[in-house]
Every structure is written in C-alpha cells, then in structure tokens.
Amino acid sequence: xxxxxxxxxxxxxxVDLTITEVGARGDGLAVAGGTRVFVPLTVPGDRVRVRxxxxxAKGDGVRxxxxxxxxxxxxxxxxxxxxxxxxxxxxxxHMADDAYAAWKVGLVRGALARVKLDEVPFAPLxxxxxxxxxxxxxxxxxxxxxxxxxxxxxxxxxxxDVAACPVLVPRLEALLAPLRAVLAEVLPDGQxxxxxxxxxxxxxDLLLVxxxxxxxxxxxxxxxxxxxxxxxxxxxxxxDRGTAEPVAHRAPVVVRFAGVPVVPPPxxxxxxxxxxxxxxxxxxxxxxxxxxxxxxxxxxxxxFSLPLAQTAAVHAxxxxxxxxxxxxxxxxGLRLTTERRNLFEDPLTPKELARFDAVVFDPxxxxxAEQAKALAGSKVxxxxxVSCNPASxxxxxxxxxxGGYAFKRVxxxxxxxxxxxxxxVGVFARP
Length: 431
Ligand SMILES: C[S@@+](CC[C@H](N)C(=O)[O-])C[C@H]1O[C@@H](n2cnc3c(N)ncnc32)[C@H](O)[C@@H]1O
What we know:
With 431 residues, the protein is an alpha/beta fold. It has helices at residues 97-114, 170-173, 176-186, 216-229, 274-288, 305-308, 321-330, 350-353, 369-376, 390-402, and strands spanning 13-18, 21-22, 28-32, 35-39, 47-52, 62-63, 65-71, 135-143, 146-152, 159-161, 192-200, 203-209, 231-237, 245-249, 255-257, 260-262, 293-297, 313-318, 336-340, 358-361, 382-387, 406-413, 423-429. The two termini are 36 Å apart. Mean pLDDT is 94; it is low at 1-6. The structure holds S-adenosylmethionine.
C-alpha cells in the first residue's frame, strides 16, 4: 500500500540519527522509531542531531531540523556560496563532487527502476561548471527603501537577498546589484516582481513581471538603468498572463542554434546553460543520425530543430505562439516547417506520425503522456525523448516500451548545478 502523508504529531523531540540516503528532493533520509525523517543539508553516513515531531509511522515521512552534525559522512564537501543553507536556489552544495554526481545519476536510475526500465545502458553524466547558468528567474520585493532580490528560502515564500550567486554566468551575477538599486526606485512600497534574466548574444535580456503597469517616471528610470547597466533589451509584463511590452531596446538580442540566429520573445524558454544545451543537442544528433524526415515536438525556439535541419527535413511543433513565430522568422533556406499546436490536448496521431523517420520530443515537467501514447501506437522507427523530469520521463518511457520500442540508451545531463533537478535524453527504437 502506498504510504499516506501524515501530519507530524506530538511535541518536538531532539534525536540523534544516521542518514542512510538522499531522497529525490535532495534531503537526507533517516528512520526514527519507524518514521522516515527527511533532514536537509545532510549526506549518507552523517550522524546528526535533529529536532523533529514524530508522527505515527504512516506518512511519507516528516521533516527534521538539523541542529548539529555529530560525525560527518564520507560524502561531505564545502559549499561554494555564502548563501547556501538559507537560499532555496541550491540544495546540494554540501556534497562532495563525486557523491553529488553519483546522486544525480541515481535520480534517473531510481525513476527508471520504478517502471522496471533501469537495465538500459547509461552514458556518462554530462556536467555543467559553476558560473554557467545563462537563464534564471529571480524574485524581488520592496519594503521601505530596501529591496530583496534573489530566490526563496527552501519550502518558504521568504526571499533571500542574494548578493552573489556562483551558479550564474558573470554577466547575470553582475546585474544583481544595479537591478536591486533600480527596483528600489520603481517598485511601489510593499510590492514585488519577478526578474527573468537571459544572457544572450547582444547582451542581457531582462523581463520584469510585475503586479501592475509602470508609470512614465518608472519607465524613464528603467531606460536609464538599461543604458548604465548594459542591458540590451528590457521588457515589462503586468503579470504572468499579460503581454510583455518593450521598455528599452538598446541592442538586438539573438540566440543561435547551429549558427542560425533567432530573436527570442522576452522571457522565452532556453536551456539553462550553453554546456547543458550542447550535451542535449549532441545526444539528439548522434542518435537521429541520418534520418531524412524528423518531427521535433515541444520545439520551443528550435534548440533541436535548427541543428537537425542542417541535414534533415524537420517539422517543428510547439504550443507557444511567440516561440513558433520567432522560429518561423529564422528558418529561411532550411527545410523546416512550423506548426502551433497544443500537444497535450491534440498530440500528433499515429497516422500523422507515419511520415517521419524519427521523432524528438522535449515536453515541460509534466511530460508528454498523450503524445507518448500516440507514438506507442505508431510505426516511427526512432524516438528520442528529452526531459527535465525523470519521473514523467520514466512514465513516458514505460508507455513507449509497452508499445514495442526497445529502450536503447539514456544520457543524464546535469545543467541545474547543485539543485535536485536533472535532464535526461532517452533513445527508443523499433526492433
Ligand atoms: C522544456 S521546453 C523545450 C523547448 C525546446 N525543445 C528547447 O530545448 O529549447 C518545453 C516546450 O514545450 C512547450 N509547451 C508547453 N506546453 C505545451 C503544449 N501543451 N503543447 C505544445 N507545446 C507545449 C513550451 O512552450 C516549451 O517551449
């Protein structure tokens, strides 16, 4: 029977525990009196003193607060950042590098084991160095004269004011201080916004997603900020569903895939690091090989479509209208067609898929349940699945395997450094 979550009961107790493993969210796991206790910032082998409210032993587990590491386990390392421990941006800086890399691969293996597909050969983990994250979404909040700009504390809405971030590329890290200063002038007191930063060819692309429109004075202040801080394009969007409006556009912003320039809409999806993108693209190209007709589903701005279109005829399908339009404007001279389509509600059918020699799909975290079912009923010889969520990837892999595909190889890619996220590429072929 699947364990149910239980509310912790009883007064808090202090207990000494030994951490046996690190769970999928990056917290160490120990067992106390039959209850699973998740303890952040610990590694296997740690002997720790923990404050915990132990409930009945029927839930997934309870959360323990680490009071002291009594004896460190063998996989401990030194955090790279002074904010580590409070900032929720990173979960695993306290792990030694080898243990961290093994844990990331284990996330993928564990998810595949749950659907009995972990016998597949694994490629080595592709790594991303510090200072390589080129796209990030931060939150800001103004209270009085002060602005907090950074990431939320773990499991909390409280913001950590981030002065430095060793994960971000230097150009984005350097923007934190001037951005904080200008937000203290343009945000109304008590209000906040999100800042979506992307380091592109041409400069930084900055999208501010705020609670309301901005007045003329704030707009002028942001234009001056863009000039002095070297921001290439600055846009403001009233809320997550609103339309981004340009505030400053000092230089063309471009992202290139296989050398083809694409002008992304403000806040567009991009793989988190150039190194991560390169590893994903290499795995896709290596396996698609010489296939002549390829469908790229959940294509975004063409991260895979444009490299694939150097040798194949590609049909790129994507739900976001602005992304489809941006890719459509970039494809001159290539055998690349685009289609806007909601692939959750309206996946390509087995009949539509019949004309392709290979299909690549790269859905959001929820995965591509319906599209995987349609592929399972198709005759497409080769499917390459890209994913940022091992759990939905495993579910979709199981669907493909049940539809007769042989699961050939899996490529784990770590581009969300020190987080509990990992990317995967899986290769499936009709025998
Ligand atoms: C993980 S991103 C991958 C994009 C692209 N393959 C890349 O690597 O840059 C997922 C993409 O799926 C798109 N998407 C989300 N929901 C969708 C849906 N229901 N139908 C079609 N596309 C969708 C998003 O707009 C986004 O571009």
